[in-house]
């Protein structure tokens, strides 16, 4: 479909929203900032409650991303997802992959009869956590591919909205050809999803400080610091302070 055809189908407000997302993401080349900008702008423009960003060097690797950016109801579910559900993800189905890589966007409503594992993913994983609907936007970057997941309690994407997101995906792909989300050694930055405060705690952990010492530095209770450290491990998939320290040190510039 040519550009003129898109303009004939999409409303003025939809075109304005697409431009808003593209302008927000333009010239953002820092990996963590790029993920957050894509997630936040899509959540705002398309009024999506929970948005996620998973990245991998290939499509199949996307679902094993150790440090995706998660928001809302999806945020505390990373460990459960990796432990039980990532091989049952509906967007890993061949039908979904074909549609995503071709058109750039697909929703659960667009998929045909789901195999039993994927039905379980929807009924036993998404629904109990308040995610009644699921959609995904596919991106191609300089060093891999990404899926931007979109989840709501209730949401139906009509034909016009579907075309709008497909058009956005096409434009974002063109815009992000030079963006690299992996590190220089080809590994994903496991700390890219951390908030500034979580990163501050991670830095102090890497300096060898105990939770009690970190609490003193940041004027927090030790219990609050423990919660920060637990959430850091949950968000990154890291298992202990030593692996967290190694990730932090890899991020620091060499002198």
Automatic annotation (TrEMBL):
The coiled-coil segments of this chain are: none
The record's Pfam families line, in alphabetical order, gives: GerE (PF00196)
List the PROSITE patterns hit by this protein, alphabetically. HTH_LUXR_2
GO MF annotation terms: DNA binding
Keyword flag Transcription? yes
GO BP terms, alphabetized: regulation of DNA-templated transcription
> Keywords for this entry?
DNA-binding, Transcription, Transcription regulation
Q: Which residues form the HTH luxR-type domain?
A: 187-252
Does the keyword Transcription regulation belong to this entry? yes
Q: By what name is this protein known?
A: Regulatory protein, luxR family
């Amino acid at each position: 479909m040519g550009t003129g055809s898109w303009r004939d189908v999409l409303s003025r407000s939809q075109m304005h929203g697409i431009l808003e997302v593209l302008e927000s993401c333009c010239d953002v080349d820092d990996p963590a900032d790029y993920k957050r900008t894509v997630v936040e702008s899509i959540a705002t423009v398309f009024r999506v409650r929970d948005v996620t960003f998973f990245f991998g060097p290939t499509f199949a690797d996307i679902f094993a991303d150790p440090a995706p950016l998660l928001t809302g109801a999806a945020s505390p579910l990373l460990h459960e997802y990796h432990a039980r559900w990532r091989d049952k993800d509906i967007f890993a189905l061949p039908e979904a992959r074909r549609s995503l890589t071709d058109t750039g966007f697909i929703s659960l409503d667009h998929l045909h009869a789901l195999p039993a594992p994927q039905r379980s993913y929807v009924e036993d994983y998404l629904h109990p956590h308040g995610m009644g609907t699921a959609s995904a936007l596919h991106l191609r970057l300089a060093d891999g591919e990404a899926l931007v997941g979109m989840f709501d309690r209730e949401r139906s994407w009509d034909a016009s909205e579907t075309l709008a997101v497909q058009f956005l995906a096409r434009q974002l792909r063109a815009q992000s050809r030079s963006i690299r989300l992996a590190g220089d050694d080809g590994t994903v930055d496991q700390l890219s999803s951390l908030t500034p405060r979580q990163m501050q705690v991670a830095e102090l952990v890497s300096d060898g400080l105990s939770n009690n010492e970190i609490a003193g530095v940041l004027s927090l209770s030790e219990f609050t610091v423990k919660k920060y450290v637990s959430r850091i491990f949950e968000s990154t998939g890291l298992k202990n302070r030593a692996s967290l320290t190694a990730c932090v040190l890899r991020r620091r510039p060499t002198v």
